[in-house]
């Protein structure tokens, strides 16, 4: 049985990850599709479809149709009014949904461009915009409070009585969790006036991909979902991201007080997770990424959160000369977790 990610052994896919070929001018260095992975997956999909159609028919599978795209856009606007960019699946099938969360000070457009370049098979990508504008930064958005609103000094978590940052994070995670619920429940928008039903996906086919603070939000969604005994998501990949120090202290303290792991087995397999880091990152250190993985592992004994650290890389999104190995790692993860 193959392991290497947080949770149960990932579904069996291609044994060899696709070669990262891509356009060298885009600086991303990856294949535009999982050709070899797709070949290995098609037989499995055909068998699954013939044996059980209930999962495939849950909600509406998003195709390249204006009606379904407009319906998804309407659902996103209702449940996430802060802004978004939809990147429909290039192959016309959307068996997977990937929610992409940008970093602090950024906007959805670069993530949407990345989604178009990756062209993940059978995957509709939605780049969400952070809810908070940043003072003195044109268009840049944040996911949660990270500085004092009067002094503009950063909140570093060193004061145990200062809960502003983690409270703000909890609020945005609640909103994102509600969005995921709406996109996985066919009855969530039953009273909406859309011309077409809102496309929905099984939770096991909803994936999160976050950079920096966006990755912190994604990881927090997972820890809360597991604590609340919600069903697992399809996967979570983060780049240069970790849980906040306040969160790590709280989780470690909770496990110590409980005298055992928080997982009693009743919540099922947790979501597969992979974290990538830059060994020269001075914003989110590789040690904090490893500490986050350790906390996740402690909460789920017997499983592993995989980590890929890139030598010489600082705090940056995937790409550039040092990004080929990192992108290969992410592509391998998605080849194992995308349906």
TrEMBL record:
Signal peptide: none annotated. Pfam families: Abhydrolase_2 (PF02230). Gene3D superfamilies: alpha/beta hydrolase. One of its GO terms (cellular component) is cytoplasm. Residues 84-319 form the Phospholipase/carboxylesterase/thioesterase domain. SUPFAM superfamilies: alpha/beta-Hydrolases (SSF53474). Residues 1-31, 252-281 are annotated as: Disordered. One of its GO terms (molecular function) is palmitoyl-(protein) hydrolase activity. Residues 12-24 have a biased composition (Basic and acidic residues). Belongs to the AB hydrolase superfamily. AB hydrolase 2 family. This is Phospholipase/carboxylesterase/thioesterase domain-containing protein. It comes from Micromonas pusilla (Picoplanktonic green alga).
């Amino acid at each position: 049985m193959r392991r290497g990610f947080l949770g149960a052994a990932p579904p069996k896919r291609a044994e060899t990850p696709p070669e990262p070929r891509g356009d060298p001018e885009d600086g991303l260095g990856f294949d535009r599709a999982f050709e070899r992975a797709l070949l290995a997956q098609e037989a499995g999909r055909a068998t699954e479809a013939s044996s059980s159609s209930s999962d495939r028919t849950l909600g509406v599978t998003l195709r390249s149709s204006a009606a379904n795209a407009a319906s998804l856009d309407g659902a996103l606007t209702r449940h996430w009014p802060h802004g978004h960019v939809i990147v429909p699946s290039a192959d016309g099938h959307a068996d997977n949904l990937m929610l992409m969360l940008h970093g602090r000070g950024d906007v959805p457009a670069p993530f949407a461009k990345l989604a178009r370049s990756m062209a993940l098979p059978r995957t509709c990508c939605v780049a969400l915009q952070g809810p908070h504008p940043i003072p003195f930064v044109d268009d840049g958005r944040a996911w949660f409070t990270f500085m004092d609103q009067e002094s503009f000094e950063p909140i570093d978590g060193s004061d145990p009585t200062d809960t502003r940052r983690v409270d703000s994070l909890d609020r945005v995670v609640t909103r994102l969790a509600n969005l995921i619920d709406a996109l996985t429940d066919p009855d969530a928008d039953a009273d909406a006036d859309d011309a077409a039903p809102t496309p929905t996906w099984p939770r096991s086919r909803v994936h999160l991909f976050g950079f920096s603070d966006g990755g912190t939000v994604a990881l927090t969604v997972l820890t809360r979902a597991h604590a609340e005994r919600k069903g697992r998501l399809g996967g979570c990949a983060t780049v240069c991201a970790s849980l906040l120090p306040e969160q790590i202290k709280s989780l470690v303290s909770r496990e110590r007080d409980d005298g055992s792991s928080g997982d009693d087995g009743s919540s099922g397999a947790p979501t597969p997770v992979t974290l990538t880091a830059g060994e020269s990152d001075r914003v989110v250190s590789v040690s904090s990424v490893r500490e986050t993985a350790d906390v996740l592992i402690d909460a789920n004994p017997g499983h592993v959160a995989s980590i890929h650290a890139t030598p010489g890389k600082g705090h940056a999104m995937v790409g550039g000369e040092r990004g080929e190995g990192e992108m290969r790692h992410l592509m391998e993860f998605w080849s194992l977790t995308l349906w």
